[in-house]
Specification:
Largest sheet: 2 strands, antiparallel
Structural class: mainly alpha
Distance between the termini: 29 Å
Number of helices: 21
Number of strands: 2
Strand order of the largest sheet: 1-2
Length: 517
């Protein structure tokens, strides 16, 4: 029988006035628990009274928690909010993982105020027992409904970095790493990015060994032990995402060797066959950029000569021979297009790996091939000089707002691309070839010293992103700053990623009260 408001207040008074042994008033507490069966007023009072005396009646702990959960699922949102607000008061001892599990399930709410209340409650119990709270969160990430899994991962990715140092101990961080590895056995592209963000933010991952562990995780996700299927958009998407996550981890002590070798062995030979996961993405330029960004961080390579050969052959494809002459003049319809953006990436990668085998162009390729290569370099360099002059004339005298137009932004970046190529070609024309020059890739932020070269300070994250010819500067080229914010399509990378089954997930939106026990 439901208790009335008067009975609730009376029983509350009995318990509040007891100074010694509350346990002898079990009937009074039971009457308060029965308040959840009453009307809105009774339920609001019960939501406040039940947690207040919860710790004094351990034999009624299950009944009390279940009564509070009834209120958390009430149709009245104000009652739900009140009940959720009080849930952390049940989070003591062995009950905490269960409360964490319940709160994680409640993240599925569509009410913004209620959602914020759940977040606040989770944070409060996290500070009480971080590992116990994480147990509830990861339990739902691994076995909960899809919406709960998604929101629990987002909770961790946004809230962990806000936790105080005394909460995020080494033991807690180790637990996060272990549990996250389990989740990574079956993830979507978006989940993978968020989980890597979680791990990358841990203090223990800021060391060389920590970052190496993260690289190992990415290597597992990237399936670098398998050949790439270039026509499978999911496989290409997986490789792109994994490489992006690995890039910030590479340094002089954490090497990119396995990724660079994989790109040279499986990606470059299939460059023209790559299927883009996003229609508007220039997938060939995208992978060449990634390869260029990784190449400075290569360690010792078992396949260095093989990789240089692959880069050399791919360079030849994008550095055409001069057209045949007819009647002393070049046939206009045969003039090749010079793809400066692609060549910048390939030349830079070749230049970086060439430092490790400086005699490659002298001893590792035939004299005939070297002669052919130099003819191509000379022809490309001539076209390059024409284009550089055109760009400098177009940008001469322009400052401030004039340089901020889309057309001039493209010209500024095009000038950076062509200057980079020019520097690298000059190195290769040395006898013997030199690998001493340094350049900043065109899509990277421009340094002030470089900006001064065109008479003003600027920053640019864009790339020309398209084929340019020596005859005409395109003015309608797409911006390439989308590269930094590229989000792949949702969905599983591949059906073969893991064997996790979602068959035991509840689909009714109800709280599963047994989790975490």
């Amino acid at each position: 029988m439901a208790a009335t408001v008067e009975e609730l207040y009376r029983n509350y008074g009995i318990l509040a006035d007891e100074k010694e042994d509350l346990s002898k008033h079990k009937d009074a507490y039971q009457a308060i628990l029965d308040g959840v069966k009453g009307g809105p007023k009774e339920k609001r009072l019960a939501a406040q009274f039940i947690p207040k005396f919860f710790s004094s009646f351990p034999e009624l702990a299950d009944a009390a928690i279940n009564a509070q959960l009834d209120l958390c699922e009430d149709e009245d949102v104000s009652i739900r909010r009140q009940a959720i607000k009080e849930l952390p008061r049940f989070a003591s001892g062995e009950n905490l993982p269960r409360v964490a599990d319940i709160l994680t399930q409640l993240l599925q709410t569509d009410d913004s105020a209620e959602f914020n209340q759940v977040n606040t409650a989770l944070i409060s119990i996290f500070k009480i027992d971080a590992k116990g709270t994480l147990g509830g969160l990861f339990s739902q990430i691994l076995q909960g409904e899809d919406i709960v899994r998604e929101r629990a991962i987002k909770f961790l990715s946004t809230k962990l970095k806000m936790m105080p140092d005394d909460t995020m101990t080494k033991e807690v961080e180790d637990y996060i790493f272990i549990e996250t590895k389990k989740v990574l056995e079956d993830v979507t592209g978006e989940e993978f990015v968020l989980l890597m963000r979680i791990l990358s933010g841990l203090k223990s991952m800021q060391t060389v060994s920590g970052r190496q562990q993260l690289v190992e995780l990415v290597v597992e996700q990237a399936f670098l032990e398998q050949a790439l299927n270039p026509t499978d958009a999911d496989s290409v998407d997986r490789l792109l995402q994994c490489t992006r996550q690995a890039l910030p981890l590479f340094s002089k002590n954490v090497h990119s060797t396995r990724f660079v070798t994989y790109f040279c062995e499986f990606v470059l030979p299939n460059l023209s066959l790559l299927t883009s996961p996003v229609a508007e993405l220039d997938i060939q330029l995208e992978v060449l950029k990634l390869l260029a960004e990784m190449s400075p961080y290569c360690g010792d390579m078992d396949k260095l000569e093989v990789n240089l050969n692959m880069l050399f052959e791919k360079l030849l494809e994008f550095m055409p021979l001069p057209p045949e002459e007819e009647n002393g003049e070049n046939a206009a319809n045969e003039e090749p297009k010079l793809q400066f953006s692609y060549v910048e990436c390939l030349l830079f990668s070749f230049h970086q790996l060439g430092k490790k085998l400086p005699d490659f162009l002298i001893d590792k390729i035939s004299a005939e091939k070297l002669k052919d290569f130099k003819i191509r370099l000379q022809y490309f360099a001539r076209g390059l000089q024409v284009y550089i002059r055109q760009l400098r004339v177009a940008l001469q005298g322009k400052t401030g707002d004039a340089l901020k137009t889309e057309e001039n932004k493209i010209k500024v970046v095009a000038l950076k691309i062509t200057n980079n190529i020019n520097v690298l070609i000059k190195d290769l024309f040395h006898n013997p070839p030199s690998y001493k020059s340094t350049v900043t890739l065109s899509w990277k932020p421009v340094q002030k010293t470089e900006a001064a070269a065109i008479g003003q300070k600027r920053q640019s994250g864009e790339d020309i992103g398209a084929t340019a010819t020596t005859k005409k500067l395109p003015t309608n080229l797409p911006r390439r700053d989308a590269r930094q914010i590229y989000n792949p399509p949702s969905g599983k990378y591949s059906a073969s990623i893991g064997n996790f089954s979602y068959g035991d997930r509840r689909r009714d939106g109800k709280i599963n009260r047994e989790k975490g026990l």
